[in-house]
Amino acid sequence: MEERxxxxxxxxxxxxxxxxxxxxxxxxxxxxxxxxxxxxxxRASLKAALVKTRRDGAVFxxxxxxxFYGLEGCGEVASPDEELLARLEEELRAMAAQxxxxxxLMLLLAGRGGEFESFIRAxxxxxxxSQLTTRMQVGMYTRRIFDSFDWERMDExxxxxxxxxxxxxxxxxxxxxxERIYQANREALRxxxxxxxEREQARNVDRLPNSERMDRLMQRPLSTLDEQELxxxxxxxxxxARKLRNKLSLREKRMxxxxxxxxxxxxxxxxxxxxxxxxxxxxRRLEKVELMVxxxxxxxxxxxxxxxxxxxxTLQDCLAKVRSFVFVDELGEVTSxxxxxxxxxxxxxxxxEAGIAYHARSDFGYVFRQFCERYLQDVGYRTxxxxxxxxxxxxxxxxxxxxxxxxxxxxxxIWLNPETKPFWDxxxxxxxxxxxxxxxxxxxxxxxxxxDTVSSIx
Length: 458
Known about the structure:
alpha/beta
């Protein structure tokens, strides 16, 4: 258990929870004092020793089940009644004396699901789970571990047991009940194997260095993330945006430092024979850009738009002005949501409360016409227009002339498309009609793509 506690401490540190050596020793002492009889007391003692803030408490609650909870609660197991179980165990002992013992078969028929974990751990050790790092591998490893139990032999042993029981006078109803228990607990074991593999995958990810974990997240397509990975991605976006903001602030400080203007200094000091008694410094003017973000929030693109809004508003101090819009078949401005709320809450409102039909069919042409009618006068020479969408226009009029007017008024249009280039101009996509009016058209499927785009604008 000490080894498991130390692994847990290492996992907490990997997720940014500060745990000192003294606190680790306190945790080991608390565990030794409390013991394992009362799971809640065990958990509370560890939390008291290791957690200092509310944020750390949330990480503790997320990781604790990965390191300490057993698998008994992963699915209901079927069990025979006491009389049937006693008769079954007697027959199994007689069969083991003749043909050898099959302990897993006995657990399956007796319904002792709490003891499955030892078999699962042994099978996982033989298969090896050290390379299990992504959710997409969970199904493959589950199948490998489950198949390693040699179900062909297990079924043969069960059929032999049924024959012995039939000869011993068991009724067909009792044999049918035993068959039902065997099949039900076999499926329960499969569910527990999958839960074990999911736990190991999460633990393996937590063992990765922060830099490697961040790099993996940066390369994952946003459309493939599950709910747990979405939470990790939101934290990653915040960390990444803050790092970029700090880098930009440092660059601005360097740029604000006045530099010596050699020619002007020489001219001013001609009366002193060229001796530079009076220095002339050149002041560099810093001009921040304005940004208008148009986000397609139809189901195929909403996730990319969600993270772009979070990214942009975390960096808004580095921009002169940010205005944001969402659209499907009509345009809605959501800039005020981010003035009134925290960024995460503002993003949620933008995806649900913009006053547009979120489940309509996309119409880029009408949206661009709306933008020209309502907001084109607000676009200036410092304004970048950032459009996130797949350009699938449902065979409506693309109104490319409207995008041309937007280009002529702005510093440039940058279009981010979550589809890869082979899919552009297939079906109802009109990407080639919009591309000539864009300063850049990029594929944007990962967090790395978002970072590169925002960095290039700023």
